[in-house]
């Protein structure tokens, strides 16, 4: 093997390694054991693998790799890693390499008029942001605003895209501090230079305090919302006027306001149990709703019966919650301290977190699992940083410092971008993250 | 008696007894026999009496009988004759010559026995038992009275006159030195100069005796001819001159060839003088050293880790004010924060994000802000100069907003139709500029406190003298003076969290008044120079008071009117103190730019006194114009502390 920079390390210890990968050709290397100096770090290993690939494929462009030994990412020099994990250096070490997960490109930030409070990128076609100027915006790409959702009278605290099967057009739910939720419909097809201002087709009233979060069922028929009045309310999203109550409300509404098309809805059911503000809800499956609250608990609800089936108590106030990871069962939550905690509710008898990530220096405002990967999640914090995490290492994979102030929200977009909004009124998009 | 006397004297003369004497004795013996009952009645033959027989030595007769006739001396037998006679007679040894009667008496067997018994020291009569069992003839049983019922004689109670006279005499003699009681102790002429004093008698006699320090014994270097290693070189001697005088060696060894050549010691007088000085001036005090582990003196406090959660780190800052923030208040649900600043603005913040929602601007510096404790009425009372504003924050839903608008609206100013006295105290006005109510006071208002039911609030005007504390009712737009006489300069007032009790703190004392009975319940004496702030425990029985000298007093109302604990933590003025509503926490903030967080557990068990543990010092604020942290308040539902600084920043410390 003729590798630059390795020959200088003649007299250092060497280990026998074999590189394996699940990546497709041409990113494979011959699975032969080779001896490499043991003081190589990730960068050294990456150049080594790139050289190996280049040997077989001369027009290969170098790209960074990450390395896994026994399911753990190498984050120090190889000999230190072996020592720390007490792995024998005598036998042939099998190192799996994967593409390094880090943003490659920082897109131009999309400017808002006020703080960006929430962002949703669950639909690959567009991004929805909620803003402190009580408007929600739809972005086709970074800097390209297509729609402005107008109608709330106070800060929008949360936005959620409702994926309704069999319905063309897009439905978006927004939760606001004016105690209402609004549902909006628009079409992405039409592309005009100026953003279109649209009004909500349905107003959901019922919360007595500011609504803090909204989440849609995966079928798109219902949304649930958490509020400062300590309740979680479930709402119907359909715009059919089948319900008698709705019609009457609509009529009365019509007398008062010019806009005839606005419906009003009432909560289908209310989940009571939290003793303080419900700060985050997720509805990953048909039946189950997860909620996080300022009363330091994460609760699991049965959406049908409204029963509370699981409590996880943390000692801190929780601000954000997401469910994902391995078989979509791990609960990630962050709150009033710099630690991102991940629980596994399938583990019986313990409420201790299975992972704790503590590289942030302030409150965690948002955390999101990658919807395809079992290992990757993104978190944002009031310290102005967005961090990309891999469960296989305790260090963040990447730290995005594009915000000047508190980051209030973050999400994945299109599977390879991280979008984040903050108190500097910017929506930042970091793209080119090759998670898979 | 006669027998014995005669027998004893004449035992040896038995040989001289003669026949005649024997016959006489038999006669007399018969006479004796007659009067056996009484021996004294037997009269002797001779009647001369008790005269020496020598008088009759040369006479023919030995005396006279009863009839006065001479009793003729018997003719003496010569020795041979009497010897033969005695040899013949076997009973001769029993015969005794009675010189008085001049006859021989034969001792009978009975008398012989008697003599033998006497010689052996026994009782003369054999039938007499000296050890016969004692028979008590007096019957003691059932005797009611003692044998003698006579009272104790008086003399037994009177001290003896003669004894006292004797004592007086002895005392006089001792005083005059005639009697010496104990010999004076001989002083030892010599003592062991270098001996160990530790076991001396003086030490045993005096507990605090400390022996004089000994001077050093001479060693080899003081010898007239010491070994070479003791002799300093010339350089060393020179170096001594450079040393400090007290460190310089007093004696420099030198060598002499002989004792003769040793000069006189030139420092002798000086050394003795210094020694005397040492003995005289050196304080010899026994140091009383007590070996106590300082750790053991500390009270046993629970570990801080067990007392979690409590605020530790600052994560959020609320920036926007341009001058010192003097007062903050948190809404009952903990979602909003109101702050008042010297820049004349009141701001409403979102606690969660640090977003400023609303700003009101006033002409003067804001002194105090207070949220209404009811969640349904999100209004803020603000004191600005002489005015108190009740502001509608616009939070809450439509129905609540409607209620608030009704509450904050009234048509005519109430002031004119009231008596003149009340007009001068406070007048209610509608304030259109700030969409609220303006209450104009006659003096500068320093603090506003709401009653827990959110209808009444009290305002304090430190310069208001007798009308310094007012209670306002929002629903009726009515103002009243407190019906108590105020003593001292009021600093602040607090409503009891559960009972109808009203606390007014003056610069020195705190008084608790019952509002219903309208009387003083308790007066708490702080002992502080100047009280700056007061906070009541949500249970209502404990009060903490912060003072301008940096002391914090904890009062337990059940215990006494004196502080239960005084905590001296802050080097500068305490600006505010606060209790947490649900967690056992309290905090104090000070001009030294720190806030202290304490664990203050109040037990429902009356036997257990409150437990106070200092937990954390919260730093982070910077000083501005000599002021540090101006206010601190706990989040109503989380163990978080908000601090307002003179550096115009509000900080949130989380657990």
TrEMBL record, chain A:
GO terms for biological process: maturation of 5.8S rRNA from tricistronic rRNA transcript (SSU-rRNA, 5.8S rRNA, LSU-rRNA); maturation of LSU-rRNA from tricistronic rRNA transcript (SSU-rRNA, 5.8S rRNA, LSU-rRNA). InterPro entries: NLE, WD40/YVTN_repeat-like_dom_sf, WD40_PAC1, WD40_repeat_CS, WD40_repeat_dom_sf, WD40_rpt, WDR12/Ytm1. It holds the Pfam family WD40. It is found in: Nucleus, Nucleolus; Nucleus, Nucleoplasm. CDD domains: WD40 (cd00200). Required for maturation of ribosomal RNAs and formation of the large ribosomal subunit. Belongs to the WD repeat WDR12/YTM1 family. This is Ribosome biogenesis protein WDR12 homolog. It comes from Quercus rubra (Northern red oak). The lineage of its organism: Eukaryota, Viridiplantae, Streptophyta, Embryophyta, Tracheophyta.
From TrEMBL, chain B:
The keyword Ligase does not apply. GO terms for biological process: maturation of 5.8S rRNA from tricistronic rRNA transcript (SSU-rRNA, 5.8S rRNA, LSU-rRNA); maturation of LSU-rRNA from tricistronic rRNA transcript (SSU-rRNA, 5.8S rRNA, LSU-rRNA). Pfam families: BOP1NT, WD40. It comes from the Eukaryota. Residues 1-50 are annotated as: Disordered. Residues 56-311 form the BOP1 N-terminal domain. WD repeats lie at residues 318-359. Keywords: Nucleus, Repeat, Ribosome biogenesis, rRNA processing, WD repeat. One of its GO terms (cellular component) is preribosome, large subunit precursor. PROSITE patterns: WD_REPEATS_1 (PS00678), WD_REPEATS_2 (PS50082), WD_REPEATS_REGION (PS50294). Coiled coil: none annotated. The keyword Nucleus applies. It is found in: Nucleus, Nucleolus; Nucleus, Nucleoplasm. GO terms for molecular function: ribonucleoprotein complex binding. Required for maturation of ribosomal RNAs and formation of the large ribosomal subunit. Belongs to the WD repeat BOP1/ERB1 family. This is Ribosome biogenesis protein BOP1 homolog. It comes from Quercus rubra (Northern red oak). The lineage of its organism: Eukaryota, Viridiplantae, Streptophyta, Embryophyta, Tracheophyta.
